[in-house]
Design a protein that fits this description.
It is globular and about 40 Å long. It is α+β, with helices and mostly antiparallel strands. The chain has one domain. The strands form two sheets. A two-stranded antiparallel sheet has the order 1-2. It has a two-stranded antiparallel sheet with strand order 3-4. The protein contains one helix and four strands; from the N terminus they run αββββ. It has one helix spanning 2-13; strands at 25-30, 35-40, 56-61, 67-73. A hairpin with a 5-residue loop joins strand 3 (56-61) and strand 4 (67-73).
Length: 74
């Protein structure tokens, strides 16, 4: 019985640290006059609570094997 109480207190005091999400790559979007570079993270990554431009895209491959991003949501 004492062991179960110790385990409960131990887990309450020692919260595991959040892992820093590593970026996958960079995505480049070309506008009319400028080039915009965005950092690509996994979809399950926690987003920072700060102002910014977030783009959700799907990576597609063309017939030559080149990768492109199709924008789903800005």
């Amino acid at each position: 019985m004492v062991r179960a109480t110790y385990d409960t207190i131990f887990h309450m005091c020692h919260v595991p640290l959040k892992k820093k999400v590593r970026k996958i790559s960079d995505a480049v979007f070309r506008g009319l006059h400028s080039v915009y570079t965005f950092t690509v993270y996994p979809l399950a990554a926690e987003l920072a609570d700060q102002p910014g431009v977030y783009i959700f895209s799907k990576r597609v491959t063309d017939r030559f094997g080149g990768g492109h991003h199709r924008i789903i949501c800005i």
